[in-house]
Amino acid sequence: MTPRGVRSPIDVKIESSIFVASAYKPSDEPSRPGRQVVFLGRSNVGKSSLINILLGAKKLARTSSTPGRTQSVNFYRINDTFWFVDLPGYGFAKVPKQVREAWGPMVEGFLGRRRDEIGLAVLLVDARHDPTAKDRTMGEWLETAGIPYLVVGTKADKLSGNGRSQSLKMIRNVFGEGAMAIGTVLASSKNGLGLRELWKYLDQAVEAA
């Protein structure tokens, strides 16, 4: 839990942020109202680390160096008005087969059930590499579901200035033509790069309710 009145590293005031539930099935999901911001991406792309720095909390969302650790839908209540939702990561081959097979129905089912409550999906890709086939498929899912999404290139602190420009161009070439794609941001949970711009999109999403 983030203490009341704490400001995130990018000066966004967080009155409260609380971990509420890990859902393994629909009946586990909290029912309290509020707009949802959903975080999706490949295993170990940095979803939990990004959530923590956005909220100014070091350990609210559990991080791990082991790809595929998050296998539940994790709900965080922010300022008692909206939600951050961390979905299981995809694309890690060493995860047991039954877990990989369960991922699609779990995530697709969640997006279908919660479509009207989702203000924005944040699709994380590794800024250092071309988006994977599964990244592209996730974008296609969001397009089909009619869910607006922002593409965030993570780990951008590891790139030079020219490398960031090339990465941004590459990501936009892949996702930029999507009708539901609202923008592209390069970010880093290490040095705060891009987080102020990212919060602008998040604010718009939760205020649109």
**Helix/strand structural class:** alpha/beta
Oligomeric state as shown: single chain
What ranges have pLDDT less than 50 throughout 5 or more consecutive residues? 1-7
CATH class: Alpha Beta
- In CATH, what is the homologous superfamily? P-loop containing nucleotide triphosphate hydrolases
Distance between the termini: 24 Å
What string gives the helices and strands in order? EEEEHEEHEHEHEH
Sheet with the most strands, sense and barrel status: 7 strands, mixed
InterPro entries: G_ENGB_dom (IPR030393), GTP-bd (IPR006073), GTP-bd_ribosome_bio_YsxC (IPR019987), P-loop_NTPase (IPR027417), Small_GTP-bd (IPR005225)
Organism: Candidatus Polarisedimenticola svalbardensis
Keywords: Cell cycle, Cell division, GTP-binding, Magnesium, Metal-binding, Nucleotide-binding, Septation
GO biological process, one term: division septum assembly
